[in-house]
Amino acid sequence: MPTAVFIVAIVIGIPVVSESVVKIVGMLKDWRLKAAELKIKEKQIESENAMRLDAFNAKILRMDDLGLSATDIVSLTEEVRQLRQEVRELRQSSTNQSME
User: Where are the chain's structural domains?
Assistant: First the structure.
């Protein structure tokens, strides 16, 4: 009887264990891919922010050549606040995505 139980355990156990291993390996690959995607997305966000900053700096330089009025300064200050808020939101969304 113990031999029959042992054979049944092997016949049932090996496929169950192998299926579990395959699922675990698949999950690990998915996690690795998601982590790589998040890193790529983070780099894209950083490059977009750098491009925005460069464009904003170029705009400031063009306005400086023309001379700034008080309304220009107010509008630029408001744009800076909006851009900072966008950066905060992007950071929060990337942090939230990395936690998922």
Answer: 2-99
